[in-house]
Amino acid sequence: MPVVRRSYGTGALALTYLSLIVLIPLAALAAEGIKGGFHHFWEVAWNPESRAALKLTFALSGAVVAINAVTGTALAWTLVRDHFPGKSLVNALIDLPFALPTIVAGLTLLALYGPNGVGVNIAYTRIGVLAALLFVTLPFVVRTVQPVLIELDTEMEEAAASLGANRFRIFRSIVFPHLLPALLSGVALAFARAIGEFGAVILISGNLPFKTEVAALYVFQRLNSGDPQGASALALLMLVVSLAMLLAIGGLRRWATRHDR
Length: 261
Known about the structure:
This protein has a single domain (37-260), classed as MetI-like (MetI-like fold, Orthogonal Bundle), CATH 1.10.3720.10. The protein is globular. The chain contains twelve helices and no strands. α1 packs across α12 (228-260) and α3 (48-81) packs across α11. By secondary structure, it is mainly alpha-helical. The protein has helices at residues 8-33, 38-45, 48-81, 87-94, 96-99, 102-113, 126-151, 155-162, 167-196, 199-205, 215-224, 228-260. The model has no long low-confidence stretch (mean pLDDT 85). It is 79% helix and 0% strand.
């Protein structure tokens, strides 16, 4: 009978590392955010300006997720299934937002789409903030969907086509169920990045309250104003809402994985 060896030491080391890097800082943030009691926490985290920043942040993050789900899947499909000149260059450019410092990305977008850009001035508008978020979140869906497409057996698609199914039905009935778990993973990563993005949006947004001020910029503004408790309160609220949404997306991913088997 085989002996199962349990590496308790490795697990304890991993939990210790997780606590030092993630749990303890989050606990410190929570303690600072609720230092003045729940009433004070709600007052500083849910005032009109912070509420407007949160609404804008989650609205733009939702739009980013919806756009990336479609365009990211289309890009991954093109890179895997099609052959064209410059494909390797396009494949490398997908990862550029990973390597490029986000403040450089914001400066590039401002130079391109600002007052002295190419004639399309979207600086200091919500469209400009959306463009910055789309730029930094582009690779997440592409790089999570792409490996699934590479490993996907095309024989079922060919069989369905030989039986008269059109391309849309083949994609909906055969390809999409296999892609859905990976797509949800990419969407979750893009959503998390969009919510917390700072460097790429600080220049092109102009940080205009009630107009282009997202939650991360509001937290930064509160810190600069000498209000770390107010900044921590809003950050804690963002953390709770983001965690709830990520758990919901994770639940959908597990459901999709079970139904795909």
